[in-house]
Write a structure and sequence with these properties.
The chain is of the alpha+beta class. It has two domains: 128 residues, Diaminopimelate Epimerase, Chain A, domain 1; 128 residues, Diaminopimelate Epimerase, Chain A, domain 1 (Roll). 21% of the residues lie in helices and 39% in strands. The protein has seven helices and 18 strands. The chain has an 18-stranded mixed sheet that branches. The radius of gyration is 18 Å and the shape is globular. The protein starts with a strand and ends in a 5-residue tail after the last strand. InterPro entries: Phenazine_PhzF-like. This is PhzF family phenazine biosynthesis isomerase. It comes from Streptomyces katrae. GO terms for molecular function: isomerase activity. Belongs to the PhzF family.
Length: 272
């Protein structure tokens, strides 16, 4: 069984966010096997996809697993999967994925750029959460709940430097009952090619820090569009390892655009 590792939201190896990708011939193997493979790959997400019969609502069925759990939505592993399907010549034009969060579409351009159509996350202001501020080691400017689509806590911090220098207490964050915590701030110098910065911490699903979280940008897009007065923006996410996500807010949908590069192409010998 062929397995790839793809760096998503970058056009250079060893940047962006790596994802495992397995394209399956038939249906999904048992969940326990999928979880074991994801644990063995040990990246923030491993994507499993198989083609659907003609006439279905989507072209491919798609699932994502962290090393510890299945997740409802994942941007970078969807981008990686679309990149692999296009590179293998298995589809032309937009590809529709049937996932736990609904139908997602990914369109691979001639130059390899991938644009994904995801549901926009709603944002509900929250009162300050002192426990999260203590775990982050930083004072927040605002807190928002991202509700049903991704279930993260969005935390606005004072500036880019504060976001970059965070060294959170992951054990303390793990005790907070959400998928994860996204921290964000405006870019210090937008002339560098991005409008805002972010980092994502997801210890509750086995990921202390996710380098570039596409799904988080379905909340970051409306958050920064409201503050910056534009619906097309670019976000830079990551600590040591970073990637760029271009976003376009289109009402209840958010378009996420990025590049990808395959860095490993090999064989998985442990069949289900």
């Amino acid at each position: 069984m062929r397995i790839r590792i793809v760096d998503a939201f970058t056009d250079r190896p060893f940047q962006g966010n790596p994802a495992g990708v397995l394209l399956l011939d038939g249906g999904f193997p048992p969940d326990a096997w999928l979880q074991q493979v994801a644990a063995e790959v040990n990246l923030s997400e491993t994507a499993f996809a198989h083609p659907l019969p003609p006439g279905s609502d989507a072209d491919w069925a798609l699932r994502w697993f962290t090393p510890a759990a299945e997740v409802d939505m994942c941007g970078h592993a969807t981008l990686a999967t679309a990149h692999v399907i296009a590179a293998a010549g298995l589809a032309r034009g937009p590809v529709r994925f049937a996932a736990r969060c609904g139908i997602l579409t990914a369109d691979v351009a001639e130059d390899g750029t991938v644009t994904m159509d995801f549901p926009t996350s709603s944002l509900t202001p929250l009162d300050p959460v002192p426990a999260v501020e203590r775990a982050l080691g930083a004072q927040a400017k605002s807190f928002h709940d991202t509700a049903e689509h991704i279930g993260d806590l969005l935390v606005e911090l004072a500036d880019e430097r504060t976001v970059r220098e965070l060294a959170p207490d992951h054990a303390a964050l793990r005790a907070y009952a959400r998928r994860g915590v996204i921290v964000t701030a405006p870019a210090e110098d937008p002339s560098r090619g991005y409008d805002f910065v972010s980092r994502g911490f997801f210890p509750a699903v086995g990921i202390d820090e996710d380098p570039v979280t596409g799904s988080a940008h379905t909340a970051l897009a409306p958050f920064w569009a409201a503050r910056l007065g534009r619906t097309e923006l670019t976000g830079l996410q990551g600590g040591t390892r970073t990637g760029l996500v271009r976003v376009r807010l289109a009402g209840d949908r958010t378009l996420l655009t990025g590049r990808a590069v395959t860095v490993v192409d090999g064989e998985l010998l442990a069949a289900p």
